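If you are new to this repository, start here. Below is one unmodified record pulled from the training split, so you can see the exact layout before writing a loader.
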Amino acid sequence: MRQNDFENTPMLKLVMSLAIPSMIAQLVNILYSIVDRMFVGQIEEVGNVCLAAIGICGPIVTLLSSFGTLVGIGGSIWLSMCMGQKNEKRASQILYNSFVMLVVLSICLTLGFILLKHNLIYWFGGSDALYPYANTYLTIYTLGTFFALMSIGLNYFITGQGYATIAMLSVCIGAITNIVFDFILIRTLKIGVTGAAIGTVVAQFLSCMFVFCFLRFKSKIKLHKEELSIEKMKHIVKLGFSPFLIIASDSIILIVMNMMLQKYGGNMGDIYISAITAAQSYFLLITGPLLGISSGTQPIFAYHFGSQNLKKIKEAFKIVISFAFLFCLVMFIISMCYSNVFVAMFTNDAMTMPIADRAIKIFCLGILMMSIQYVLVDGITGLSNVKLSLFLSLNRKMMYLGCTCLLPAFLGVSNIFYAQPAADIYASIVTIVCFIKIIPSYLKSHGVK
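And here is the target side for that same chain:
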């Protein structure tokens, strides 16, 4: 197993060695939801209804999983800082405290979501036609919450120690398992959304076991019992809150969007939800790898912030932003030319396909600016400036939420898709200005030179 050397590896090589495996891991990770949707969308007669049902569950499931990100990113950033300071004892304490937090959170969330799932489905855009399928999927998935949170949360600690390839492998194990089970349970045994949910839970179980065993026996900073500390847990939450908010609020916005589509879509409500489910699935192919670039390289900023090396921090920002921008440029071209090919993988419904195709093209109008915003916000989090990254995250989400609520009311339901690029462009401009004005003095005040 190969661990990256944050101190001596040339920056371009270091960024690529962390960003590329993390991109692949995120890309493979989103296959959990995308493959489920592709298989159920092609079910004869009820495929479009099943696709909409999973579309209703998708943001709820992501909201559930985002708590793994809260602990995982928060703890792994601090762990990387401690490694930069050569304090392996504290790094070990952070890992164990994070593990305990994930256990407690998974138990609480499982109980809470099981009790509330009926109301959640209807509150968040479900209809009587969608409910049986959405209820089945959400019930089974929620019962596997422990494995989902553990596999997501603990995997960040593998990346945070420099084992990016191992972190990618853990995700690949889960995704490949999910694809195989979907094919067997949905295509062969024909048990629909039940099979999709079972396949996801089994995949997360295997990924969880792999991650746990690696951290317990193979990694440099191993998972073993340490002293529990409420103060350490608070600091982990503080560091992880901004990226958690990005993911959790994305889920909330998607939930609100489903509600608006159902409210203003009339008898087309379920069709609009099917269409936007396909469009959002495609958009994950952009935001997932982009998040892989920005979050995967966070340990570089955290490590060199801990070692107070300004030159390395500047160099890292230049390379990571360039790489993220190039990726989004390629995806923008693909989106404008071939979005209809992707839509056909989800549905062959004549009414759904043109709506989904248009939604994809509109969603992608702001992705070039979004590439800069993602890297800067996650980089600022890596530099431990939680207040600024939190403000920038909230700023974008409030814009997105406002547009999601107002656009269908004043411009018609078909224009709700413009909320995405409007928020991306606005938030990117604000983020760039704040970064230029605030970060240089912030670093100087912390002795980084």
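Two things worth knowing about this chain: The two ends are 33 Å apart (CA to CA). The mean pLDDT is 86.
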